[in-house]
Amino acid sequence: MSLARARAPALASSFAFAAFAAFAVLAAGCGAAAHSRAAGAVAPLAIHEVPWNQSGHAIAIGPLRAVVDGGPRVALFGASGMVLFAGGVPVLTDRNVDWKDGAVVRGPEGSPVVVGIDGMGRVLALRALSRFEDVSARYALDGLRVRSAVALDAARVGFLSDGAMTIADHRHSRRFPAAVAVPPSSLVGGGGFGAIVSADGLRLFDASSLEAHRYALTGITAAALGDDGRLYVLTPRALYAERPAGDLALVFDAQANVLHGLVASGKRVWFGDGDRLGVVDGDHVAEADGAIAPDAKLAASPSGDVWVIGREGVRRFSAGTGGGEAEVWNATLAPIFARACASCHRPGGPSGKDLSSADAWHAQRAAIEQRVVVQRQMPPEGHAISDADREAIRAWARGEPN
Fold first, then answer.
1. What local confidence, expressed as pLDDT, does residue 323 receive?
2. Are 160 and 280 found together in one domain?
C-alpha cells in the first residue's frame, strides 16, 4: 500500500489522535512517563562539529534568517544581506536586501537553484553565482507577499503566502487557499508531500493528487517531512511521528517545554531538546548532551548534517565521530583550498574548473596528486602552500590517515 493511500484514515482519526495525545501526557503523573528519558526512551548520540567557514571572517549580515545548503554551496540569508559560500570560501556577498527566507529548488533545467525571499515577498533566484533575479512572475506569484518556499519533490516547489499556497513545477503553477482556520505559520515539504502548520493544527497534502488530511493537534511549533514523506511533528513538550495508518504516535515526551527546531536533513530528522541535539529515526530517539543553545534554530542539509543557528553564529554538526571522506576534506583540505586554490578554482573562477567541494576533489584525485604533490606545478607562484599542505594532499590522495 502506498504512503498516500495509507494516510486515508487520518481525517477520521485526527480528533481521536488529539485525545490519545492528551491521555499520554496525563499518564505521566504515575511513575516514569512512557517515551520519556526516565523511561529509557533516549539513546546516546555521538556527533562532531564540521568545519565549514574557511575564510576566518565573521559573517556580518544582521540577524540570520535562513541557512540554505545546496550541497557544495551554502547561502546565508540575513536581515541586511546574504553571503554565498563554496568550499568554505565566500564567493558572493550582497548587503542590500532584507531577506526573510530561502530554499533550494529545482530549476527549469532540473539543476538545484538557490532562491531567496525578500522583505517585499518577492522570490529571487541566484543566477550565475553573481546576482539575484526576480522570478515571482515565472511562478505566477505576482502581487503576492510570499513568506516561504520549500521543495516538495524533485520537480515541484511550494510557496506559502498570506492565505494561499502555490504549487509549481517547470511548466505550471496552481494556487489554492491555505485551507486553515487561522493564518499559517510555516510550510514544510519533502518526499512528494507538503504540510502547512497553523495555530489550530496541521494540514498535510499530497503534491500530486492534492489529497489533504488535517491533524487537529494544537501547539505545533515545527513539522518535518522525511525523504520518504513520513511526517514528524513537534510541540514544546512532545515529538510525534506518523504511523503507516496515517495517524500520529507519541515518540518522545520531554516532560517540559524545551523542544525546538525540527528539520529533515537527507535521511535524518534532527531536533533540539534544550541544550541537547537529537535525531529521531522512526520511533527511536538519540541525543547528544550540551551541544547547542536552548534557543538555537536548526536548518537542514542534504548531506544529513544539521546547521545550528545561535547567538554565537552558525555551526554545522554531523552524526558519528567523523572520518568519512567529506568530513576529512572539510577538516583537512578545505582550509588548504581556501588559502591556495580558491582564487582560481572557486565557482565561476578564472581557471574554469570548480574544485570547491569534496566531490570535485574526489573526481580529480589522481590529477591533483600529480600536479600538486609530484610535479609541484600547482598552485602557481604567489599562492601560499607549505610542505605540510602538500603532504596532507598526498596522504588524502592515497587514502592514508592524516
1. 63
2. yes
